[in-house]
Amino acid sequence: MKRLAISLTFFLVLALVIGYVLSGPSFMDWSVTGGLFAVAVAGEGFRYWLSRSRAKKRQSSGI
């Protein structure tokens, strides 16, 4: 859980910086920021799903 929080915090800050840099001095480009953060959340969800599916395959079906 700690790894997930650190990873999402890092990507949130990165998305905010990229959104600010792309928008210029006028205002934050929230669509870019939100889109980048959504990609990061989807990637972390996929990584979690992949690790759980691999763990299920390793479980023994016998006694």
Question: If you had to describe this structure to a student in words, what would you say it looks like?
Answer:
The chain is mostly helical. It has one domain. It is built from two helices and no strands. Helix 1 runs antiparallel to helix 2. The radius of gyration is 17 Å and the shape is elongated. The mean pLDDT is 85.
Key words describing this protein structure:
0% strand, 81% helix, mainly alpha, elongated, 63 residues
Oligomeric state of shown chains: single chain
Q: What shape does the CA trace take?
A: elongated
Strand content: under 5%
Helix content: over 70%
Number of domains: 1
Which spans of ≥5 residues are poorly predicted at pLDDT below 50? none
C-alpha-based Rg, rounded: 17 Å
Transmembrane segments: 33-50
Keywords: Membrane, Transmembrane, Transmembrane helix
Describe the SSE topology.
Layout: H1 2-23, H2 30-58
Helix pairs in contact: 1-2
Keywords: Membrane, Transmembrane, Transmembrane helix
Transmembrane segments: 33-50
Summarize, please:
The chain crosses the membrane at residues 33-50. With 63 residues, the protein is mainly alpha-helical.
